[in-house]
Amino acid sequence: MNQELQETINRWKTYLQKIEQRFEESLQQAEETCKDLLIESNYDYYEVMKTWMAIKSQIDDISKSVTQTWEQKVYPQLSLHTHLDLQKELHESNFTYFLLIRLEQFERNLKADLSQTFYNHVIQLANQRFSCTQCHSPLAIQSNVFRAHYVTCNYCQAANTFTPDTKYAQIGGNIIDNIVAKKCEPLYQKMQVSLANIQNQRPPIAEQFWEKYKSDYFNYYETFFIERMKLNHDAKDRFDADLQRKKTEYEHYEKLHKKIY
Predict the structure, then answer these.
(1) Which CA distances in Å does 97 have to 61, 89, 93?
(2) Which of 51, 163, 198, 223 has the fewest CB atoms within 10 Å distance of its CB?
């Protein structure tokens, strides 16, 4: 390898190291900003999400800069050496894919942490504010029901109607989904590995790869839906429908993929 080529590769290595450092620092700053804003905004979760999307766009630009540098400065130099066997981790596509996966993982964890903080605050606040209309004794709401429901007073047996405010009702949506997703993260990663194994195979894909992915796929989603039911009572009513929806999605993916080849 001549000196000029080696210098190009060394500069590219140094550049990628600096990019990765900058990327991680940006994620750390994003986490601090979003968590601080959640409290400063009086737990306005969706305002925080709007801020995160703006920050995420800026972080995405880091990845785009890698592609731009590769196409304009690095690849033209490396292409002059047709027999060059560049290390896998130094390929632009592999590095930007690494950044993409890192960002996706970070986003899931960030949303889960913000959701858990939001959940804890809103549940506690609702319990502090709810009391019996007859004897004024403090009442504890059902922590897994996020719609209007009856709560019986243990002291006077009066039936009280709890009507959730907007923030409390929000818990029943993607707040709980985010919390459960983090709890099921190991199963999610296992499923993703199985999917990657399929995508990395030359077609036709051996049936054992499909069976492994199918098993991990349904293990993840069934566990996810079961864990969600523990936190959201109403999710029980749609368990079968949710599982069937995922079954249909899987069958469509497998059928389409096999049909192509």
Answers:
(1) 14, 10, 6
(2) 163
